[in-house]
Structures are given as structure tokens and as C-alpha cells.
Amino acid sequence: MGSADRQLGSAIAPVSTQPAVWAVALAGLAALGVAMGIGRFAFTPLLPMMLHDGSVTLGEGGWLATLNYLGYFAGAAACLFIRPDPARMVRCGLVATVLLTLGMAAPGGMAAWGLWRAAAGVASALVMVYGSAWCMHRLAELGRAPLGGVIFCGPGIGIVFTGVSAFAMVSAGWRANWGWLAFGVLAVLLVGATWHIFTPAPRGAHAAGPAALAQPAPQLNRETWLLTLAYGLAGFGYIITATFLPVIARQAMPGSLWADLFWPIFGVGVIIGAFVASRVSTERDNRRLLAFTYAMQAIGVAIAVVWPTVAGFALSSMLAGLPFNALVSFAMREARRLWGAQAQRLMGLMTASYGLGQIVGPPLATALVARSGGFAASLCCAVAALLLGGAIFAWMSRTESTPAAA
């Protein structure tokens, strides 16, 4: 653990008051599960239900997704310019996620739902940036930095639970708004269980933090720009699958009972990948790990195009899910390696780039579907973006300086 981590951890809270290691890791897991697994990705399995209810069209569903990703970008961009108490921001983001998820259960139409989805994107970005940074610094202070990967299991667990639940809801004849209500109640319970872990630092201690951490400003050099660009390509590369997977499967296999189960399979892959990432030594070159995960996700997305069967979609979902949060974990580790105690700002820049990639995906997919009648063209674009991102990291690992242990 570097001196910067020790300094930042000390500024956040005294060691004597820090929760147990696993309490921090599991609180981070739950926070990302609420903000990402419910606040962002519950929309994916509920979209077919909304289409069935006639509350939205496919085009309107695509725009609701885009507004969410616009909000995610805006929230991530805000992290570049503000320096609030991380734990306080996590609390604010979680409360907002609960309220906005419950808001989707209320009647309102596209205008209100668009506003709720955009605001939910802002909230999820704040929890993603500040929650992951807070937990990773806490764990580094406690000497258990590799456990930072555990928190990224949260979105996968949320995806699995919401996906399986939506499958049961469809079988039971539920309407989509009932699903939103159920997931909102679940979010309330999870936030209540973890609230005490995310305790804001005393205002005096927080104000003293920047002075205590006075360091030369990190440089936006070629390496950080390439990292940011490649991370943005990952945002575009996964988002079409993450937004439309049940719809894609239903279109390819009309009437199949499996169509709504591929999204939970994706979530299982996310959990496994995030857990494996937590076991990877921080001494490994993050850029090589990223090149590998991008290639794996590209293969997963491509399989859905060339093998649109039950077995093909199952394999595609697993291979696309495995690297999903593993690459996020490795990218955040790389940000900490490059910028140390000020990595939170680089994480914000990277997350904003990721958000931009996500914004492009849904409208591109719906436009290409309108032209071609299927998702193959948009999925091929996603594969190309992932291969390019992986190539950038492979090139960086050969040409940039050899990293020290994170």
C-alpha cells in the first residue's frame, strides 16, 4: 500500500473507527447493487414488460435508456469538479436511487419517466465513483486492497436478482409498475442495512483533507488519455447487450421461455468475473488484464450474432458478463496506480467517458433496427469497439512504462 493511500485513508476517518474489512467490502457491494443492479439495470428485464403493457414503444424504451446514460455521464462529469465527502455523496446517491425507482412505479408517461431515468443515472454515477473510491481507500488503509474487487460483485448480484424476479413476475402476470415498486422496496431494505457503514467524516476533518494531501497535480498525459478513451469504448461495447438482451433474445427466438433468463445468466457472469478479479494480485499489469477482458467480452457479444440459439445466447451472456465488472475493477486499479490519492478525479473522467460510450449505443441500436429489422449490425459495432479498446491496452502494455504494484 502506497503512502498516498495511507494519507487518504487517514483523512477519511481514523483507523480506530473504521468498520471491519468485510463490513466495508459488503457495504460497497450492496451500494453498487442498489445503484447499478437496481437503479440502472432493473430497466433491462422490466423493458419487455413495459412493452407488453403498451406503456412504451421500443423507440421510447431506447430513449429512456439513453436519458439514463446521459444522467450517468452528467453525474460522472460532476465528479471532476467537486470534492465532497465521499460517504455523504454515497448516501445521497442511494436515497435518490430509492426514490427514483419507486417513482417509475407511478403513472406519469414518457416525460416523467424520462426525468426519473435521467436523475437515476446521475445518482448511479455518484455512487459508482464515490462508493468505489471510498471502499477501495478504506480497504487499502486496512491492508486488504485486493478485496476491492468484491464490491464490483454488487451489480452482478443485482442483475441476477432483478432478472430472475422479472421472469417470475412475467409468469405471474405482473405489470411493469408492480416490478418497479418491488425493486424500490428492496432498495429501501438494502440502503437501511448499510447506512451506518457510510458514515461521513466530521466536517473539520474533511476540510483538512486537501491540505493534508497536498501533492503536485497529476498530469493528463498520453497514458491517462488512452486509458480514458479505451474505457469509453467499453461503455459503448457492452451497452447494447445490457439494454436490449431480453428483447434481442425474444426477437431471435419468439415464444421461447429462455428469452428472459439470459439476462440473469449475464449477471451470474458478472458476479463470477468480479470475484475472480478480486483474487488477482495487484502486482499484475492492469493493462494486460484489460486487453484480455475486452477480448473476452467482444467474443461474447459476437456469439449472439453468429449463434442465435438457446446455447449460443447462454454462452454469449456468460462471456459478455464475466468481464463486465472485472474490467471496471482493473481500470479503477489502473487509475489509482496513475494518480494515487487523487485517483477519484481520474475515475470521474473515466466514468464520464464510459457514460459517453453508453449514450451512443441505444439510439444507434434502435436506428439500425428500424433500418434492418434486427440487432446484428449494432452488435457488430459493439464488437468492433471492444476489439479496438483491447488493442489500445495491449499496445499500452508494450510501449508505456512498466507499472509498479498498485
Protein architecture, described:
The protein has 406 residues and is mostly helical. The protein has helices spanning 3-12, 21-38, 43-53, 58-78, 86-103, 109-141, 153-171, 176-194, 203-212, 222-252, 262-278, 286-306, 310-321, 324-339, 343-372, 376-399. The protein is globular, with a radius of gyration of 20 Å. Residues 1-18 and 207-214 have low confidence and may be disordered.
What is the mean pLDDT?
Answer: 87
Name the CATH homologous superfamily.
MFS general substrate transporter like domains
CATH class: Mainly Alpha
Give a short account of the largest sheet: none
CATH topology: Growth Hormone, Chain: A
Number of helices: 16
Q: Between the first and last Cα atoms, what is the distance in angstroms?
A: 7 Å
- Gyration radius (Cα, Å) is 20 Å
Strand element count: 0
**Overall number of structural domains:** 1
H-E order: HHHHHHHHHHHHHHHH
Stretches where pLDDT is under 50 for at least 5 consecutive residues are: 1-18, 207-214
- Tell me the fraction of residues in β-strands, as a range: under 5%
> Which range best describes the helical content: under 10%, 10-25%, 25-40%, 40-55%, 55-70% or over 70%?
over 70%
CATH architecture: Up-down Bundle
Which structural class fits the helix and strand makeup?
A: mainly alpha
Q: What is the 3D shape? A: globular
What does this entry show, briefly?
The chain has 406 residues and is mainly alpha-helical.
